[in-house]
Write a structure and sequence with these properties.
The complex is a heterodimer. Chain A is mainly alpha-helical. Chain A is built from twelve helices and two strands, in the order ααααββαααααααα. The longest helix of chain A is centred in the N-terminal third of the chain and has 29 residues. The relative contact order of chain A is 0.20. Chain B is built from 16 helices and four strands. Classes of the chains: A mainly alpha, B mainly alpha. The interface between A and B is large, with 48 and 50 residues.
Amino acid sequence: MNWELVPQAIVTGILKGGVIGLIALGVVLIYKSSEVFNFAQGHLLMFGAYITWWFAGAHEDGSELFNLPLGLAVVAAFGVAILIGFIIERLTLRPMSGQPVLSIVLMTLGLAQLIEGLTSIMFGVQPRSNFPTPFPPTETFKIPFEPAFNETIYLKKTLVAVFIVAIIATGLVILYFRKSRAGLSMRATAEDHELARSVGINVPRIFGMSWALAGVVATAGGVLLAMLSGASLTLSTVVLITFPAILLGGLDSLPGAIVGGIAVGLSQELVSASKLIEVRNASAIAPYVLLLIVLLIRPEGLFGQKRIERI
Amino acid sequence: MAVMRPSGDFDRSYQQDLSFIRKPWQWVFLLGAIAAVATSPYWATPYIVITINRIGYTIIAVQGLNILTGYTGQISLGQAAFMLVGGYVSALTVEYLGLSVFVAIPIAALGAGLVGLIFGLPSLRVKGFYLAMATLAAQFIIPWLTRHTFKEYLGGSDGIISAAVPRIGSYEFNEPSRYLHITLVVLIITTIIAANISRSRAGRAFVAIRDNDLAAEVLGVNPFGYKLRAFFLAAVFAGVAGALRAHSQRAIGTELGYTLTESIFFLGMLVIGGLGTNIGPFLGTTFVVLMQDLSNAVGSGLAGALPAAMTDRMLTSFRPILFGVVLALFLIFEPRGLAHRWRLFKAAWRLRPFSH
């Protein structure tokens, strides 16, 4: 371990972990209400990022229809995401209700392929690095800290902004689930479909709404990630590292998603702070090793309910 | 599953009861198909021969997945990674132990099987989609290991090492038209093994675990043991497929694919063909591979017709779109896959001209 790099790694890990947590939230959301584990969340995220980029009018050849400021572009992209969420639920998941896990997992995997193809046909396959950001990507905060490398911790302003937005968004989603009527209906649906129906909740509608909400959360995550690294087709792979976060936090726990996200972010950054190059290289698979350990030791996660059937 | 047979079609001996191929016309059909494939280098274009070869080794991987996912009901997102293991083991065995490729393939199968066992261990504690996560971890950890460990053997960051050309005496299987025959023979062997596994004690135990693991346990089937066996077998088949692919491409490594997308495509092939049927892997793999080639052709055709700025998009986009749409349609309208369609078709043909 290279101790000089550790403070920096911890700070960066927590900041990145916040974003991972927000993305994980989208998956947990759908799982909570309809018990569908959405492998296509990463592709929704990528699509959201591209749509925002398109609304913001960043196309080089000027072929865009809109030229909105970033804020409005995000709102417009949220609108598209809501629509897509409803469409996906209605067309692909509703005919599948009651099918075994395998079919539903495969459906979301197929969906992921479909969205990937559509995105690349609509927006091209090249990465788009000119995603609009509130700050130039090179601006950093410098925090003096004695034991750290160069006695400072560097923080990209964008990363900090992204983290703050991610935490606020997460807070809003959790608040929505605790206080709003729609959120409470979603939780009721998650508990028991039949009971929810009997108190007058329109269950299929709730499924649709949770997909729409997940689309919005995915878009938010996509925009935040794209601010850090630009919009590209590889954005979708980020959802793969959120799976360990989700399982670590507990599949049905919203705060767990955030905690898990931060744990994954930390594990990646801390591993890459090592002195040995072999260990540093392992930062790409650190989340998966973490995942295997979680599965073997505590499959229900830190905050999840112990509903998993142990075999 | 009891096969519904028409009245008057009965068995006179135990041997007849056991046989897969019951009718003379089925023999004719089967031998005709084998002969057609075996002689394809003489009548088909090289492109078709290459495609048949590719379909051949892909079927073997899907057969393995069929044991794990189709019969035992465990989702695996790591089949491509186990293929990678098989390919590496085979290539290294030939390279460093100096063994023939034909000896190396069974060793590769065993090596991949052992790795499969390791990643099957979480199945002792979790199931369903949690298990899918564990295999997903395999799909990332194994390719990473091939790139970052034992660099002098596994090719390091190049992600590719060469695999030897198989030979018998002085006859080299150095072209797809020759290599095809190895693939065909191995495919026949794996098909016989897979079909027999499915009706053995193990196969019935797999199905029992899939349908209701608690009931299976009550009946005296040890779910841990049989799940591990299913993982082992799936990885063994993947290992054979990977070894065949490695020696056919004369190289192995993460540069050549073996990605999560491939694993997902294998699952898609299996579902489209029909889960838990012996003929499913054949139908599904052929269907999906041909569909991919078709979509590539359509994509490049459209790319030629459109302005240059759109070209790159057309080339790669049709494959995932078509796959996603077809998979979704099959899951909604025909979750039992092409195998079920084929059964319906046969029944309809037999009952013709009366539909009931």
